[in-house]
Amino acid sequence: MNVLTVFLSMKGETIAPGMKIVNLEKGYTNIAAEYIHEVTGGDLFEIRPVREYNPDHMKMIYEAKEEFDANARPAIQEYPESIEGYDMIFLCFPNWWATMPMPVFTFLDHFDWTGKTIAPLVTSGGSGFANALADLARVCPAAKILSGLEVLGHEAETSKKAIQDWAWKTVQEEELKRETFEFESFENRTAMDFMNAVLEIAEEKYHRPVRIRVTCNGVIVGQYVDGGLAGTEWLDRKENTVKATGRPTIELYWHPEEHPDLAADDTQAPFGGGLPYIISGENRGAFIVSGLRHREDHDLAMAALKKIREKKGNSK
């Protein structure tokens, strides 16, 4: 999935808890956007207004209020050449007067958002999105708007894990909804292509040995365990989970409340690396990767499946 992270952020004076004025070398929203970009990859773009807001924070607030009252579209310095190649856009902004800053509206008005998925993140002193989600839906009616994440501005720097967990999960859940597991029929070649793709990507990106299994109709049609059977228990667990749920194993990690019995069963795998092998709408087996951290297992399996699906004749 191709990701663009866009942000507007103000450095310099801002209000901290206790109504204290603090001076920021880097804006809160900038920090959050960089955390997102670090875990999702893709491109990072800053919305930079042409005007220079007053460095006195209290005066800047009322400059922003004038723009809000006028429903202004303040000029920004530049735009990305295109958003055509992006599937998901993380849109990060501070709460100004209960909505997005008006330069963000300028940015949004510039593009056609048809078919795009927007994942918003707002930093604030406690008011969260307020009217921002409704306004975002109004100006981008043809986009899919996700529920987003609210971050207290003064906690942005210490919220790295929460921000990155949300961003990574958001990308992966949207990727899973793209139906990447559907095949017209079973072919032995598909199993070999998957295993080869896993090994190629693992060698290039992770530099660690991995274990691989492909099953169909209850039979292991391909397996690679790096010279021995050690660790095949995890292959078994992931196979069991895909068989029981018909869904990627990572979803048990994300949504254990949907499968409480499986989540408590030590023969199941509440983490990543197992993907269903769906043939004509029916779950018939699994593509499995094990040996890395659960996110890495999942990312590797997804990347390998995407790679083999790009070959002609393998999929719908």
Task: Kindly describe this structure.
This protein has 316 residues and is α/β, with parallel strands linked by helices. It folds into two domains: 3-176, Rossmann fold (3-Layer(aba) Sandwich); 182-309, Beta-Lactamase (2-Layer Sandwich), CATH 3.30.450. 37% of the residues lie in helices and 22% in strands. It is built from ten helices and 13 strands. It has helices at 28-40, 57-69, 102-109, 132-139, 160-176, 188-206, 232-245, 250-254, 260-263, 294-309; strands spanning 3-7, 12-16, 20-24, 43-46, 88-94, 117-124, 144-145, 149-152, 182-183, 211-216, 219-224, 274-279, 282-290. The strands form three sheets. Strands 1, 4, 5, 6, 7 and 8 form a six-stranded parallel sheet that branches. The chain has a five-stranded mixed sheet with strand order 9-12-13-10-11. Helix 1 (28-40) packs across helix 5 and helix 6 packs across helix 10. The two termini are 19 Å apart. The model has no long low-confidence stretch (mean pLDDT 93).
Quick gist of this model?
By secondary structure, this protein is an alpha/beta fold. Helices cover 37% and strands 22% of the residues. It has 2 domains: 3-176, Flavodoxin domain (Rossmann fold), CATH 3.40.50; 182-309, Beta-Lactamase (2-Layer Sandwich), CATH 3.30.450.
How many distinct domains? 2
* Tally of DSSP β-strands: 13
CATH topology of the largest domain: Rossmann fold
Q: Helical content, roughly?
A: 25-40%
CATH class of the largest domain: Alpha Beta
General form: elongated
Main pleated sheet: 6 strands, parallel
- What is the CATH architecture descriptor of the largest domain? 3-Layer(aba) Sandwich
- SSE pattern: EEEHEHEHEHEEHEHEEHHHEEH
Structural class: alpha/beta
